[in-house]
Design a protein that fits this description.
It is a single chain. With about 425 residues, this protein is α+β, with helices and mostly antiparallel strands. It folds into 2 domains: about 210 residues, no CATH class; about 160 residues, 2-Layer Sandwich (60s Ribosomal Protein L30, Chain: A), CATH 3.30.1330.60. It has 17 helices and 7 strands. Strands 4-7-5-6 form a 4-stranded mixed β-sheet. Strands 1-2-3 form a 3-stranded antiparallel β-sheet. A hairpin with a 5-residue loop joins strand 2 and strand 3.
């Protein structure tokens, strides 16, 4: 093949740029280098699978043309340097992942995180960055070598087969839902060789872009002030939210029921779609499901449920790995109840600077939303807001009270 895209991207991020990448995803330069080496072939593998159908190839070219991702790689120091440019990159990437991987986005992101030795939250940030950057390098290369069309894109991607197979993290084919990486290689599609104009040929990816373009505005803020750790239990507070419209009444679904205790102190909770999750006896999962399925409980402004196994690193919006189990559970609940919409609320205690507390709470709410979205939950079903030290549920004069006030809550906005 004439060019190795994996080398092109990794060399383009060498030196100080790799250090900047590490800062954005909450790790060091060495870990960032190892992580991007797994992320790039994973992104390319997803693009190969997407382009293996005529519709997918055409949609992908439209996405490259309209996304103008080559502009991101023209000034990488600015793109990865923090501020609005980096925030926009993270938002753009979050909207791209479902277009690249479909319902496999969470599986691939988790695989890359495990292979790289980074947390799930860092993996989400990494893939949100790698997606648009890989597309930017592809677009830039094709524009410089004859133009961007279905045929030129397929020729380039097909030429990456050996490099992807050699560099891909173990298990990538399975995470992509393929028997092997060969199954994702795009065919020639001879009837789609004409250049594609700047008008999208399919609306499928547009819905994702529109639905997800607003998320992760604060995901870049991985370093700020104050420790926050969610309390155990359910909090009822009154943040200033608008009363959402209640969805039309539908046939009630059976309440999820415990199916017995397990050795680690959790119980098995069977959801209406047959999926079994493990949750604390009095955890947020059971209370959330009970509220959703109880026809006498209506959506209001005051009922919030505190996540009891969600933890962030001290003074930052970086999720700890131990949070994954509860995030997986909440995502499973949302899949079992497809009409349900949630709002994520972030809160702090009253210590420190109020403005910084407000920003930290908003960042953590946005990161939680992004983590749920990466688990194949349509972002249009989610919203996030930070409230800082407003609406305390305990006395901030005591350490115990402060810890209870440092929390991340869920609010049902539609049943």
């Amino acid at each position: 093949m004439s060019i190795n895209l994996i080398d092109l991207v990794t060399k383009g991020l060498s030196g100080n740029l790799m250090s900047q990448l590490g800062t954005v995803i909450g790790t060091n330069q060495e870990s960032a280098s190892r992580s991007i080496a797994s992320a790039v072939p994973a992104i390319l593998g997803g693009l190969l699978k997407t382009s293996s159908t005529q519709t997918g190839a055409s949609d992908l070219v439209s996405l490259l043309i309209n996304g103008k991702h080559d502009g991101l790689v023209s000034n990488l120091n600015n793109t990865l340097g923090g501020g609005a440019a980096t925030e926009n990159l993270l938002k753009t990437g979050a909207s791209l992942l479902p277009s690249v991987f479909g319902d496999r986005a969470h599986a691939v992101t988790s695989l890359v995180g495990s292979a790289s030795g980074i947390s799930q939250a860092s993996a989400v940030s990494l893939m949100s960055i790698a997606g648009p950057l890989v597309m930017g390098f592809i677009t830039q290369h094709l524009h410089s070598t004859g133009g961007l069309s279905v045929s030129s894109l397929l020729g380039l991607l097909n030429g990456q087969k050996s490099a992807i197979a050699a560099s891909a993290p173990a298990g990538l084919a399975g995470a992509l839902g393929l028997a092997s990486l060969d199954a994702g290689i795009a065919p020639a599609h001879p009837n789609l060789t004409a250049p594609v104009v700047d008008t999208p040929t399919s609306n499928g990816w547009i819905k994702w872009v529109i639905g997800l373009a607003a998320i992760l505005a604060a995901l870049f803020a991985l370093r700020t002030c104050q420790t926050q750790k969610s309390e155990v239990g359910t909090a009822v507070v009154t943040p200033p939210v608008e009363a959402p419209a209640v969805a039309p009444v539908t046939t009630p679904v059976p309440v999820a029921t415990p199916s017995g205790a397990v050795s680690d102190g959790l119980i098995s909770l069977t959801l209406p779609d047959g999926i079994v999750i493990k949750a604390a006896q009095e955890g947020v999962e059971g209370k959330l499901v009970a509220f959703i399925t109880d026809s006498s409980k209506v959506v209001d402004k005051t009922t919030w449920f505190t996540m009891d196994r969600l933890e962030f690193a001290t003074g930052s919006a970086t999720l700890q790995g131990k949070s994954d189990a509860q995030l997986d559970n909440i995502a499973a609940i949302l899949k079992a109840f497809p009409n349900v919409k949630l709002k994520v609320g972030g809160y702090t205690d009253s210590s420190g600077n109020a403005d910084k507390n407000l920003k930290l709470s908003a960042d953590r709410a946005s990161v939680t939303l992004a983590a749920l979205s990466s688990r194949n939950i349509d972002a249009t079903r989610l919203e996030a807001e930070g409230y800082g030290d407003k609406f305390p549920v305990a006395d901030n004069a005591t350490e115990e009270g402060k810890q209870r006030n440092r929390r991340t809550d869920l609010h049902v906005t539609q049943k």
